[in-house]
Amino acid sequence: MERLKNQLITEKSIRLLQQNQYTFHVDSKLTKTEMKNWIEQFFNVKVEGINSSRVRSKKRKKSNSTSSTSKKKMIARLRANYLIPFFLN
Predict the structure, then answer these.
(1) Domain annotation covers residue 19
(2) Residue 14 parent element (H or E)
(3) CA angle 69, 72, 74 (to 5 degrees)
(4) What pLDDT, in 10s, does the model give residues 17-69?
(5) Which residue range forms the structural domain that includes residue 54?
(6) In a domain, 28, yes or no
(7) Are 36 and 50 in contact (CB under 8 A)?
(8) pTM attached to this predicted model
């Protein structure tokens, strides 16, 4: 899926793994329903819920113009007894 950019590994995301929650950077146009369906089909798990947020990066000044990009972060909460084996446990 080209809309799923990468998994997010931070201190917080590693703590969330203990609660069976997985964090991804995704395309900003992706909806929660599309993300839920893709995770359930690709990893063969059941998703209980998804939280999403837009993360703004720092503004950077390059010559005469300023640029800033925003990313979308989604946290997928899986049902009990399901896990994604590619992540750290």
Answers:
(1) yes
(2) helix 11-17
(3) 160
(4) 899 999 988 888 889 999 999 889 988 999 999 999 988 777 777 666 555 56
(5) 4-58+70-78
(6) yes
(7) yes
(8) 0.77
Within-domain flag for 85: no
Residue 40 lies in a domain: yes
For 1, 40, 45, 56, the CA distances from 18, given in Å and listed in that order, are: 26, 19, 17, 26
Residues belonging to the chain: 89
The number of CA neighbours under 13 Å toward the Cβ of 79 is 9
Number of domains in the chain: 1
Token output for 67: 């640029």
Q: Which residues of 28-62 are buried (b: 16+ CB within 10 A; e: fewer)?
A: eebeeeebbebbeeebebebeebebeeeeeeeeee
Q: Which residue has the tokens 């203990």?
A: 18
